[in-house]
What we know:
The structure holds two protein chains of two kinds.
Chain A: H1 2-25, H2 30-39, H3 43-54, H4 59-70, H5 73-84, H6 88-96, H7 100-107, H8 112-140, H9 152-164, H10 171-187, H11 195-199
Helix pairs in contact in A: 1-2, 1-3, 1-8, 1-9, 2-8, 3-4, 5-7, 7-8, 7-9
Chain B: H1 3-26, H2 31-54, E1 55-56, E2 59-60, H3 64-77, H4 82-98
Antiparallel strand pairs in B: 1-2
Helix pairs in contact in B: 3-4
Amino acid sequence: MLRDAAALAVAVLMVGISFGALAVAAGIGAWQAVGMSLLVFAGGSQFLAVGVMASGGAAAAAVAGGLLLNARHLPFGLAVSDAIGRRWPARLAGAHILVDETVAFATAQPDPRRARLAFWTTGLLLFVAFNTGTVVGVLAGQAVGDPARYGVDAAFPAALLALLLPSLGSADARLVAVAGALLALLATPLLPPGLPVLVALAAVLVAGPVNRSGRWRRPPVDRQRP
Amino acid sequence: MTWAAVLVLAAGTYAFRLAGPVLRERLHVSAAVQRLLMLGTVALLAALIATAAFTDGGGFAGWARPAGVAVGAAAALRRLPFVVVVIAAAGTTAGLRMAGVH
């Protein structure tokens, strides 16, 4: 698990470097780029916000777009709250390192103890990697060049897919995954960034309807155990 | 980018992140709802993977990226180590771009 997390940390370091370099090139102040990585710590929304500002957009539009993109963290937090922990210090600190990769790592673990370990280990590792990368990127400026040249943009979906695979044991989960992916792709040309991913939540409906008492009409629970 | 914009984005993002663990405590979560949450996470991650693999700024991302993701996916399905998945995906995409495929 640690080795997997380290592999991802290297990729995240590259993203941090790209962000730092890009932000400075886009005219964002060095301290603001570093502060953004420390305080926001959500790469996608940071690139989006900087992109909107760089193309002459208003700060309000940049913030709104970034927040929309980050709305998915709410359902993610509901799903991995046990891995974060129950006590307030754990929640307050854990919430900040709740990112796509930590959620994927935690849900890929077979038991709650390892899920907690995976969440915190990857979260702290990625936080250090991303922020170190941002500082390096800011210092290096444009020396890194176009981050797409290194294929980093392909590494992320592939890494998330590898992490998602263990959760696809049941037919229901596979169906929901395919439906969610299709829904998001279909919605992408029509909706602003962030919304297509949230729309994909509707894919859960294909797994079977729930009635008002919250009970399943079909008996699904035992079926998902392999 | 003003500091105000950075701080609002940071505060809003943190609120989204903290809301999950806090709300989860207040709500009684039945086994059925827990299963829905698990499926919801699967749907969100799958959607994130699909949009990140195929799209960029609302349009098609070009062939190099999905090709790299496909090679990474093949490695993951063959249960190759995680590092291999990441390097295979990035390497394929980087190689294709170097060869002029975008």
